[in-house]
Amino acid sequence: MSTLSKPNHIGRKISRIRELRDMKQEALAQALGISQQTVSTIENSETIDDEKLTEIAKVLGVTVEAIKNFSEEAILNIIGNTYNDSNVVNGNAYSCNFNPLDKLIEIYTEKEKLYERLIEAEKQKIEYLEKIIKGK
């Protein structure tokens, strides 16, 4: 496929930006005040009038230029150039700014203190009840 004859399919670009925004056609349609079928028609169109494109850009939270210049290759380039796998655990970006073991020990110590206070309160209750029983 020649890159020179690649069409500038605005509808497909709108569709990809919508998907990247995790938005369904129904949500876009509702925000625009049109039907889902109309959104589908727009996304299948190679060209869209500027007024409608401006409305769509506003709903998607991007500029008209961003839609017109959208390129999946550029997005993949950005991700590839900024991706740092040293912070990835099981496929998820993970950046821990504390030691989980320290937190676990801290919680365990706090739990011990609470149990000790509970035991002390129970001892005091028993002593109080014994005094009442002996006083009778």
UniProtKB/TrEMBL annotation:
Residues 14-67 form the HTH cro/C1-type domain. SUPFAM superfamilies: lambda repressor-like DNA-binding domains. SMART domains: HTH_XRE. The keyword DNA-binding applies. Keywords: Coiled coil, DNA-binding. InterPro entries: Cro/C1-type_HTH, Lambda_DNA-bd_dom_sf. GO terms for molecular function: DNA binding. Residues 104-131 form a coiled coil. PANTHER family: HTH-TYPE TRANSCRIPTIONAL REGULATOR XRE, TRACRIPTIONAL REGULATORY PROTEIN-RELATED-RELATED. This is Transcriptional regulator. It comes from Flavobacterium hibernum.
